[in-house]
## 1
Amino acid sequence: MADSWVNSAERIGADLHLDLSGAGSRRAALMGALRDAVRSGRLAPGTRLPPYRSLAADLGVARNTVADAYAELVAEGWLTARQGSGTRVAERVGPPAPGRVPKKGPVRAHGPRHDLRQGTPDASSFPRADWAAAYRRALQAAPNEAFGPGDPQGRFELREALTEYLARARGVRTEPDRIVICSGFAHALRLLFGGRVLRGPLAVESYGLGFHREILTAAGVRTLPLTLDEHGARVGELTAGTGRARAALLTPAHQFPTGGPLHAERRTAAVDWARARGGLIVEDDYDGEFRYDRRPVGAVQGLDPERVVYVGSVSKSLSPALRLGWMVLPRELVGDVVAVKGEREAWASVPDQLALADFLVSGAYDRHVRRMRQRYRGRRDRLVEALAQRAPGVAATGIAAGLHAVLRLPPGTERSVVKAATWGGVALDGLAEFRHPQATMPHTDGLVVGYSTPSDHAYGAALDALCGVLPPD
């Protein structure tokens, strides 16, 4: 009977005696009481705290008060939170040694307290149970030869599943034999340009990921920036100042990082240029699945499969840890790309490929994307509401789709705001970080804020910290 009581207590968390008297808000009083309990040793490292709903009921405070206090103390390093394990006192935080005066303030974890960098999905939302089930089914159904040397083109099961999914969800026109599996977009660039399947000069958008440009530079590819406006890349420049380009790298579904889809007329114009030039478009389907306030925008590849290399991955929709992506290639390039990969698959795990195939065919991928679309839309809405209340002079743009927003700042303030955010423990990027070094379009001061990165538990505190460093008006 005693063992049963102990196990039950472990599941629900320990009862806490906390004194919330004193000046200040209930949230501040709760955070102070918890810090004191940890500092004094009354709450030992590893102690599991009650769920925030239970503690809120015990203390007679709002649930959000407890949730925000927990999130802030996790960010400060006093507590840890892990899905399935609850909120616990951090192992590295203990009572002061005898005779020593405790340091003022919290002991902070390494790295930023609040991570609002772009490009990473909420790691706590990875569908562990559904993925494990897909993995088990895939391994049980796999033929023996699947556990031998991998086909560099990728498992047929996954290429077949992708053919159906991409046609249905993204308007891609292909067959399994035109798909080559890779480990993500960066790997695709290395295969296409590092392997000399495609050559430069390459037209790129004036704002984009710097490490993609580094990959291209390392491959000896010269990049020529295209101007951006509210309709996306000005592809008319392909026949003007960047007319020497042999290919163009575009993010038509959601321009990274400024946001917004490539206008329909410009999509058609880009394909017409590729046909007339004998060139190719490399389509990075960035954030293609995550749209909120507009109808889905299909892939440019559907306009001409022989003039577009379509590249996608699960890095944003599932996890970058899976290292799974795909290239949908013009038929004439398939053999060249497979030859660059080599005789055996050296990048994408075959069991992971089989699991993703099952995940797609079973419908689990669609369900996960719909669930995360709703969650990220809620995150975006909370960001917009927080700005309206606390920094009304800062507008959020590029928010109809994707996992990040661009916050427009008054001219000349970007560098100081980024510096203030760093000092305040908030990790984010200035818009200038993504600007092509040869871009001629006017620079706009701004921040690139990823609202998908923090867990739900930590998001409120991250927004508070962000608004604290923004210009109020």
Note: Confidence is low (pLDDT under 50) at residues 1-12, 93-109.
## 2
Amino acid sequence: MVEPMSREERDAGNRKVKLGFLLLVTVSPPLITLLGDPTAVQLAVATGGGFLLGLLLVWYLSRLASEFTDGSRRPR
């Protein structure tokens, strides 16, 4: 029988998912920018913008997910 995940395992898994999502969102704008033959500055701006957007999305999704976990359960 499979035992439930410990809090440490769950937190480590959540960090990996957040990091993967951040990496995906950060890398997407520069890759799209490469289609238009960008300058180095344009590529850097696209990377920075993607990183900031990724941080914002990870923060928002973390807050949204916390509404469904960690003691937010109401008795029926």
Note: The CA atoms of residues 16 and 22 lie 10 Å apart.
## 3
Amino acid sequence: MIVQNAVTAIFTDVDVDICTFGWCYQASHPETSEPVIEQQILVQEKVPEVKDWLGTHFLPGFNSVYQHIIANEPYYLTSVEECQDEGLKAICRESGINSYCCLPICSINGYWGIFELARISHEAQWDEDEMELLNEISDQIAIAIQQAELYQEAKAKREALSHAYRQLQETQVQLVQAEKMSSLGQLVAGIAHEINNPVNFIYGNLQYTAEYADSLLKLVQAYQQEYPTPSEAIAKLIEDIELDFVKDDFNQLITSMRNGATRIRDIVKSLRTFSRLDEAELKAVDLHENIDSTLVILQNRLKGRRDEPDIEIIKHYAALPPIECYSGLLNQVFMNLLVNAIDAIQQRRERLPWEQQSDYVGCITITTAPITSTQVRISIHDNGIGMTRQIQDQIFNPFFTTKPVGTGTGMGLPTSYQIIRKYHDGELTCSSVPDQGTEFTIQLRFNPQSSREKHRP
């Protein structure tokens, strides 16, 4: 824009038939390899009679002109016939030019910026006033170009610093989150192991307990048949312990204990699946099993409280092949997205009038589907509070959070984004409507393995 305005002003205020601005430097001809001056004309103003000069030109025989340029001296000819450079003389003749002027502006990285002015008339002269005006213009343009160059350098450095700062933030998030998840994984695995041993002991002995109880009940029944009229003391004891109720309820008691032990074993299994400390490398896993294990861990938050209904979980699972991934990291993503969905549902419920809160049913829909033979999609959609466009634009920024102070670190979604992008060559996107809900969509690519080995966590 600066040079365009300058070219237009010179062409308008100075009586010339063509005015151009461009860059030139010493080079080798691409076909003959001879030393030439390469010139790139970027801007021009001209009368129709003069040939177009725009574009890139390889100019042999421009030695005199170039010597003036690198000496930062104007070069002008009242008559091109006086020119000692045959190359310049030939171009001027071809263009119908009879007087020529070249004004060097500045040098940047070996390139010289130059203004070229020319006239068709044989009687045109370059007087002192014109040259003084052109020199003043060239000085101002040189300052403007240098300032623009300094601005571009400062802008590039600022962008580089900004990029380095973002990388530093992302690295900090990953280090903090990795340490946190490592500690959590070790804790979860340790607890699961400690719980698993006594639960197995209880579960294994329940079978013997049921058999022993059944034998004792058969013995009591045989005594009742053999001695239908017990003594007064035994009759009172039978009445006090409610023997008939005990016989009916004992089997149900054993069944209830077995169900409880099974439930504990399922939770332990989910904890072990979620932690997956022994699976730091790529491994083919069942994504549905990973999602379900995360839901088991979050079961307490999915249950309603007081007059609040449970959060409904709807699953639309398609048939998926085993997916090669970093299972522990992927579980972390599922955990972050589901926790955010639960929080959004609770926030929407809290904003409703008290009398409407019990009628609002939170819902999380989990959908999986194959896209191609090497891609799958997982979406987690909630009917929670939703987000504005301004918030959506920031949710993947490190340490950004919409939660009150003390309830969020802003690391969940940025970490999830990095896990999907960096370690799985995938995409994590978000779409949301305020007061209607949010959907996070994960697209995972699996195979070939080689594209991810360099990003091992």
Note: The first strand starts at residue 18 and ends at 28.
